[in-house]
Amino acid sequence: MHVERRSRADSFDRDAEARLAEAVGLTAAIGLAVVGKHIVPLARPVPATLIGSGKVEEIAAETRALEPEVVVVNAQLSPVQQRNLERAWKTKVLDRTALILEIFGERARTREGRLQVEFAHLTYQRSRLVRTWTHLERQRGGFGFLGGPGETQIETDRRLIGERLAKIRRELEGVKRTRGLQRKARKRVPYPVIALVGYTNAGKSTLFNKLTAADVFAKDVLFATLDPTMRGLRLPGGTRAILSDTVGFIADLPHELVAAFRATLEEVLEADLIVHIRDAAHLETEAQKQDVLEVLSELGVEPGRDRPFVEVLNKIDLLDAGVRDGLLARSERSEAPIAVSAKTSEGLNQLLRRFEDAITSANIVFRLELEPADGESLAWVYRHGRVLERRANDAETILLTLSATPAELEKFEHRFGEKMLFGQGDSGEN
Fold it and tell me: How much is the pLDDT for 91?
């Protein structure tokens, strides 16, 4: 059931239908079959039940006839509203936050992911005095909102929840320290990090797999990817980079999850290039774009201002030929979104070139002359810069043409000083 607050009468039907379809997709993501659905217009929320008494009774009659396992309300419910609706409908009720937490609980695979989801779940749970959940093993994945064999209704112990939250918080701090060390190690390489972000089910993981020949789980369901994955990537000009696949964003992302997944999303905070993957074939693609940008803003990321930003229109294979050709033609412009299909590989070569242009746009080109026997310096150069050309000159030395970021350039100047040569044409990449 989707609850829609009227604000723009001319776009109400399209927006409401799209949100209802998304809610159906969320329930399908945890294997639930939808037996009935409603769009409930809401001019003013009712404190006791969110929706009006007439609609509550209408749905109650339907639940008596269908006997569903659970009713999903695609809105945030207060504990009182949730309890009253459960009493009226004689079944479990999940709000949007609980449903997303349930999905995350099923999908998280790494220890870090499970810790983050449990932290979010307990934060949400603490506001509910009496709910159905278990501390230990369950018959199914997730975090117990849907129940399972042997479960009973128990009163949550706030003290135990508080102690568990404190322990998880300490463990997540350890995760952050570990990630910090990993990032420092990567910076010593150093390879720039490219982070893929986007609305859930925009095709990030499929694109990630295509570009890196990886086997990250990619399926046409919401939140197919929860745990961050990183792979090496070589760009057309020889630049090496690290590509990072991240959790998908969604409208009205529970604030508990924004906080809990901050350690994971720090890969985005630290990325040298942010790539926004959009589903070009989705009716709500513009609204989804705004949702993603709002979440990034909450994280303190301002794409295009504090670092390079590339926008990608994915799934163009689902568009009409005329629309697809138009998007591909506009992709030639340096600031325009890149049109691609991760499924058919169309546009991917151009995308990789855009990655390289964005990463190296501030690079400085210079030359360096080294003795052939100075293997240590030669190895250092390859670790800390990009070798554009290498040749032997008449003095039987090696002449290297290099490209480096301003930060990398400082390291070169500290090590080689006057050996570095800057000439005409050496002030930019190519």
Answer: 94
